[in-house]
Write a structure and sequence with these properties.
three-stranded antiparallel β-sheet; single chain; 45% helix; mainly alpha
Length: 151
């Protein structure tokens, strides 16, 4: 019976997911809450978490900056009853898409770098907010690997 007990299958826990929700206190701008989730205690330092979320918030704020092309495109589309978008893609629209895509790429690169340098070595993975519809930042906390060798 003792042999059966030592051969018992260990049930491993799956990864734990922690969601940092959008912060709508200042309107609909893309900003995430900076409150430190208790589920990350002992895994990631509070300062590291706060620095990461603040940087993500800064990058999204830069991506959503209003500019002259944004105002011009909005005014033209409003004056034409938004029929402008059915007829053609405006010069401003093309420029804005390229500019916005560069900013989104910046955010992706930042999150990947944070994962590689800080979070992955601690068993945590940040899922890009774009993959969650900009609703949240997801932190996936993997359980520590157990040494299953028998002595």
């Amino acid at each position: 019976m003792a042999a059966n007990e030592t051969a018992a299958v260990q049930i491993e826990q799956g990864p734990k997911k922690v969601f940092v929700q959008r912060d709508y206190t200042l309107g609909t701008e893309c900003k995430f809450e900076t409150a430190y989730p208790t589920q990350l205690e002992g895994v990631i330092a509070k300062e590291t978490f706060t620095d990461t979320i603040n940087k993500v918030n800064e990058l999204f704020a830069a991506a959503e900056e209003l500019s002259c092309p944004t105002y011009t495109e909005s005014c033209l589309s409003c004056m034409t009853g938004y029929l402008l978008y059915f007829c053609m893609e405006t010069k401003y629209s093309k420029e804005m898409k390229q500019w916005y895509q560069r900013r989104v790429r910046e955010i992706s690169v930042f999150i990947q770098r944070q994962n590689d340098e800080i979070y992955h070595p601690r068993g945590v993975h940040i899922v890009e907010p774009m993959l969650r519809g900009l609703r949240c930042v997801e932190f996936v906390v993997y359980p520590p690997k157990k040494n299953t060798s028998n002595a």
